């Protein structure tokens, strides 16, 4: 039976994403559990890692595979936010569905809204976060030692991150070891991420409590020659990438013999002496360990063994690369991660690697827009800016987006009133006013709703009064269309603001009162230490959410220097378990929202799904070939 092409509607897209949301919802947040997978081979996987959960599913729907691939790609770059990714995506789809049903007669389509959301995220979101969120955070940089990392804040960041990946007990152990690893390396950037395969060793069969941070580099290879039992002191090692044996002794070489001193015995003697001279040079240099990326011959192993040099063969490229760059890095330290099973060990290693990727993403923004470059502020998305966990980022950004929406609404209303007043003031006579009133109202309505240009706002033209142009009203320039698609559309700010609240709602899903307390506490901090007072309409909108119905205790605030150095207090809210010590990266949150908006645009750009039935066709072809082979044998 041939399947017909499937025309996708917004409801079907939302239904597909909601299935993935239901999978990761129970493992989300500080009270989330772990997911147990059982493979066909009998192996089990117990994890809280969102990407591992999604990729372990046997997903067949093409849209679901698109979402999983977007999550995997984002997680591989930033190491963070896979479960929040799905929650935000599903929430945005619901907001778009709600808006399109409400504004169906106005022609507001899902694709257009997705494009407007992405345009807003690329052009304006960074500035919104800088103004409304970053001043309430803190920095990983030590305020007393510029250029150094605040160890306490770093431990808070890693602990909160690893608690979303591992069980609480395992997270504490791995968090402490990761902090110790970072404290011994002066370079926390690309170096540790680039050389992490050589900086860690996974050991299965031991409890995770046996994990250690060892001084020195762990070489992942076996000794080919025994290590002499003596006190070496400092070991001097040499890395080689070629065979030390002379080429004439390598198998397959043609050697012409004959004449005096050209016999096989004399040639072997001379080559053996040459090999001994190489070993003497090694001994003269004080080399006691030879790291070889290739396998050496028995003659080489015997020769270096006589001179007290031990050999490690087939050393991996990662270990040799790290060894070659360690001379200027001080004393190296390696992380040994233990686990009772191979899966548990791999899970801990992946958690550390993702934590390092998250730190690298937090180190600095690579997304500055033209608007950001023009601003006079010096704290634009400062590197290593962090903010308290528990929905603080979402609450602050939600509040800022609603402020932006209501400011825009107030501006449009004021502009509308000013334009009407200006037109009446310049009316030549009562007769002209009566004749042009219908035209003015029609032109003003279209201008304010669809395309409010800068010319009409600041200097209304009298030419429009006598000859209104519908071309300018309905077909603005390309630049104005790109700008107005998101900057002058309050629905974009409202949809994103409402979608953000899905994250703290899920965090506090086991205790809704905590959600109200956290939201009220954040609003109280904004009012007491914020940038500007809320307009009345903003306060009314926030009251509609019900978050100001609970009195929040503001006495639990802790003083931290903000990322901008402005000295405002860091907004701290509670997690559902009562802890307020963790922090999360502002830059990672920004990258996450951008990735979600890009995935949203990609999903809503799909119109039709074509079912190819490739697997059925291949199996039918293989079965036919097997039948033909059996007929030939007969």
UniProtKB/TrEMBL annotation:
GO molecular function: ATP binding; ATP-dependent protein folding chaperone
Compositionally skewed regions (Basic residues) per UniProt: 407-425
GO biological process: chaperone-mediated protein complex assembly
Pfam families in the cross-refs: Cpn60_TCP1
Record carries keyword RNA-binding: no
Family: Belongs to the TCP-1 chaperonin family.
Name of the protein: Bardet-Biedl syndrome 10
């Amino acid at each position: 039976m041939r399947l017909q092409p499937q025309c996708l509607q917004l409801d079907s897209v939302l239904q597909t994403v909601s299935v993935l949301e239901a999978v990761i919802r129970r493992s989300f947040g500080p009270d989330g559990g772990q997911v147990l997978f059982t493979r066909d081979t009998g192996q089990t996987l117990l994890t809280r890692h969102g990407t591992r959960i999604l990729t372990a599913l046997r997903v067949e729907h093409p849209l679901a595979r698109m979402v999983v691939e977007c999550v995997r790609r984002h997680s591989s770059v930033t190491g963070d936010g896979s479960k929040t990714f799905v929650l935000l995506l599903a929430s945005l789809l619901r907001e778009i569905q709600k808006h399109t049903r409400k504004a169906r007669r106005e022609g507001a389509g899902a694709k257009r809204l997705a494009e407007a959301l992405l345009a807003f995220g690329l052009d304006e979101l960074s500035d919104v976060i800088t103004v409304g969120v970053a001043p309430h955070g803190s920095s990983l940089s030590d305020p007393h030692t510029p250029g150094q990392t605040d160890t306490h804040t770093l431990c808070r960041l890693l602990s909160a991150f690893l608690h979303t990946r591992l069980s609480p007990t395992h997270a504490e152990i791995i968090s402490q070891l990761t902090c110790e690893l970072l404290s011994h390396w002066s370079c926390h950037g690309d170096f540790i991420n680039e050389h992490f395969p050589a900086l860690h060793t996974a050991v299965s069969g031991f409890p995770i409590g046996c994990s250690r941070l060892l001084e020195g580099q762990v070489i992942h290879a076996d000794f080919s020659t025994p290590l002499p039992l003596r006190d070496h002191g400092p070991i001097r090692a040499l890395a080689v990438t070629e065979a030390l044996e002379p080429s004439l002794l390598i198998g397959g070489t043609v050697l012409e013999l004959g004449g005096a001193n050209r016999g096989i015995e004399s040639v072997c003697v001379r080559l053996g002496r040459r090999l001994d001279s190489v070993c003497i040079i090694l001994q003269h240099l004080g080399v006691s360990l030879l790291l070889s990326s290739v396998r050496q011959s028995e003659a080489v192993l015997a020769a270096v063994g006589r001179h007290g040099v031990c050999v490690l063969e087939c050393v991996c490229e990662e270990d040799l690369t790290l060894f070659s760059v360690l001379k200027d890095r001080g004393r190296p330290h390696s992380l040994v991660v233990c686990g009772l099973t191979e899966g548990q060990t791999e899970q801990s290693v992946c958690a550390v690697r993702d934590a390092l990727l998250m730190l690298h993403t937090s180190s600095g923004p690579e997304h500055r827009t033209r608007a950001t470059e023009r601003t006079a502020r010096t704290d634009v998305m400062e590197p290593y800016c962090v903010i308290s966990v528990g929905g603080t980022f979402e609450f602050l950004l939600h509040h800022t987006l609603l402020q932006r929406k209501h400011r825009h609404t107030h501006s449009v209303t004021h502009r509308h009133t000013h334009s009407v007043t200006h037109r009446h003031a310049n009316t030549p006579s009562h007769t002209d006013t009566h004749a042009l009133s219908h035209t003015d109202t029609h032109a003003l309505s279209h201008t304010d709703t669809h395309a409010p240009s800068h010319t009409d706002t600041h200097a209304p033209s009298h030419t429009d009064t006598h000859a209104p142009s519908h071309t300018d009203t309905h077909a603005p320039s390309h630049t104005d269309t790109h700008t107005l698609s998101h900057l002058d559309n309050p629905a974009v700010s409202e949809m994103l603001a409402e979608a953000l609240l899905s994250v703290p709602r899920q965090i506090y899903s086991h205790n809704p009162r905590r959600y109200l307390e956290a939201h009220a506490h954040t609003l109280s901090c904004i009012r007491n230490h914020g940038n500007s007072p809320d307009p009345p309409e903003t306060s009314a909108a926030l009251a509609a959410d019900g978050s100001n119905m609970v009195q929040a205790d503001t006495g639990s605030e802790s003083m931290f220097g903000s990322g901008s150095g402005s000295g405002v207090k860091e907004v701290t809210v509670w997690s559902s378990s009562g802890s307020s010590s963790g922090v999360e990266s502002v830059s990672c949150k920004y990258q996450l929202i951008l990735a979600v908006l890009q995935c949203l645009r990609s999903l809503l750009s799909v119109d039709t799904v074509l079912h190819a039935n490739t697997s059925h066709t291949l199996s039918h072809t293989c079965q036919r070939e097997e039948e033909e082979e059996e007929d030939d044998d007969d």
